[in-house]
Amino acid sequence: MGRIVLESVTKKFGNTEVIPPLDLTIEEGEFVVFVGPSGCGKSTLLRLIAGLEDVSSGVIKIDDNDATDLAPAKRGLAMVFQSYALYPHMSVRKNITFPLRMAGLSKAEQDERVTKAAEVLNLSDYLDRRPGQLSGGQRQRVAIGRAIVREPSAFLFDEPLSNLDAALRVGMRLEISELHKRLETTMIYVTHDQVEAMTMADKIVVLRAGNIEQVGSPLELYHSPRNTFVAGFIGSPKMNLIDGEEAAKYGAHTIGIRPEHISVSGSEGPWSGKVVVSEHLGSDTFFHIHGTGLADTITVRVDGEVNFKYGDRVYLTPRDDVIHKFDAEGLRIG
Amino acid sequence: MATQHSRSVARFMLAPAVILLLGWMLVPLTATLIFSFKKYLPLRGGDLGWVGFDNYVRFVSSSAFWPSVMATLTIIGSVLVITIILGIVLALLLDQPMWGQGIVRILVIAPFFVMPTVSALVWKNMFMDPINGILAHLWKFFGAAPVEWLTQASMQSIVMIVSWQWLPFATLILLTSVQSLDREQLEAAEMDGAPWISRFWHLILPHLARAITIVLLIQTIFLLSVFAEIFVTTGGAFGTKTLTYLIFQRVLESQNIGLGSAGGVYAIILANIVAIFLMRAVGKNLDS
Amino acid sequence: MARAVTTQRKTLNTLIAWSIGFVIFFPILWTILTSFKTEAQAINDPPLFLFFDWTLENYAVVQERSNYMRFLWNSIFLAGGSTLLGIIIAVPAAWSMAFVPSNRTKDILMWMLSTKMLPAVGVLYPIYIGFVKLGLLDSRLGLMIILMLINLPIIIWMLYTYFKEIPGEILEAARMDGASLKDEILYVLTPMAIPGIASTVLLNVILAWNEAFWTLNLTAAKAAPLTAFIASYSSPEGLFFAKLSAASTMAIAPILILGWFSQKQLVRGLTFGAVK
């Protein structure tokens, strides 16, 4: 249950093609994250799978059945929205049982499922409150509760954490991951935050302008990005991309080197520049370095104890074995 | 939201309203158009055949036509100006801290609930009556000769009655808008040393633009068809005959359907001219 | 943000506002007071304000002369019926335009509103003839339909603006949860829009209650509402101020009371949902 296949799916709004022909297979039980900058079509893709938008052409199969023209409710999918989309006039209990009520389940069955879901999500004490009386994190849990009681074949999450503050976001991220481990149900998760993608996904789909740039596990994407876009998008701080002479030395149009793969010294190294900003996170320190003649800024990530001040001249040494090479089209070489 | 299915459902759900309004507009309109090209006197021979544009020519050449158009526009224009200006003043006043704001608001809304026939009757008899009216007593109290309102100052009187009815509406809409003003913005302007008048002109008034548009639109719609106030008070005499009233007289009092229908077509044209101006302004203002 | 206001300033505001409120309300107050006077006291010079012999005589006379209850019932039936009918037709239409907008939505909305500008008098005769032919003249049903039609654009517009405030995601959630369109409108949209619908209903009841063109021209005795009841006092004999006042008070009291009790919703309604 929960295998979703997209075959040459396209979507046009008027004359604008938002999704050019796209093929994608999501295996049963996988946690798949669609990630990309805003406007890349990731939410549209999710809504196509949900059935909230029609595909312009192509086929969507859910568990080997053609679901292209099925109404959203008939697809057996549950969705958690960015704004939570809770029914403000219903209690938490009513919110969670709404899909069951619509499916015509018996009262006893409804009660049983809502009790179970509430336990899993720590909502037992809030069942008789209205959404308006809950905190952001609790509302998010209610939205998830409403999704899990349906026992869908897949969950769809549309940027579910973007309305939460940073601390809560980390907590909810873990909760959703745990939930996935426990339920073993397919989950499709849309986000613009590559950290969420890296930490949660079994498989990441990187999108840009409706095109799939790369599909792979978080580490695959990290270690061998298929092009400069993916290279720049995945990883924090961002990979340093260097064009020109220095790249030519490596036989490439562009080379990429991750901040954590550069070492810093006060005395020697092939590259040099001045520290403009140093960010101390405790465990790590990020230096932003100008004036290297390679790129506007080179970012370096080193151990927390290393200390240089604003204006210090530093020397950088990249690790040659982890340099990424790209050709003039931005595609990976080798 | 927009799947093929939901779009066709939407069309289906919109259909009854559209069909009803289309019918409501087209059927009588067509009939009026047909009548307007006929000599049609129900009490004196009925349908006397086609007469081309005769009715149109006669209606316009009647000495009452242009004055009636002017009267219509005068009433609409004056009432709009009065209610919007007073409405803004009242809204700003009611927004100030005071005791019993709720009660004052109730008092101010009240005229909106009064049916036009009642307000016209009450004003005509109990206020504007030159002998027993309150206004006559008031004038006498100050040693002035009572005014025969509905004959000597008929247009002003009607404008006053109608303004009284619509002031609550304007005030409330504008008050709601004033209350949503960004206080911090106003305070920032005060910190910047902007005097009250420029704060009003550059911050408050632009903020009220949308509300003023709504007042303009809604009031014009209702003012175009002001009827009972004139019917009850002057009966169209003393220069208060609006286009609506003139047509009413042609149709019901002289039972000349053809002529009245031609007038109806003119009224529709006038309404459309006003509507086009309004819709332009409103459409722009409501987009946000 | 809130700044301390001197008591003096507040007192001044209060004084000015109450005076203006009193002046605006005065015609209604005076009508109500006069309705309790005798005819002689009603035209006393100088006018009597509070110190007169309060009497209910005028109300008894008015009730005797014209059957108030029948007019009242017609008004309630017409205002309530036309509003209810209008809401039933307008909710689906407003749903369509608010949640499945197309390029033409704005034009349709504006066109609907423009039908309100159609001068009633221009189409009075055809409607009159049509009513005679259909046997609808002086019938509550016919008048109810007309009142519904003239207020329909306003109802649709108001509901549209209220519906627009409801996030589309909630309706999509309902759709994902397996709600049919009927369920979606009945269990999700309508309950969420209750305040807006209440305001719409209130405002349209008032508009229908006070409508004085069609109600005067299309009714005789049977279906006549309170507008016609009061119009019968516009003849010279209506110059009996006290009786006129009693009749006026009786005509406006129900809607005045309704309006005051539901002030909050009404204020919302009055702004047509378009001003926040």
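qc> The longest strand of chain A covers residues 16-26.
qc> done
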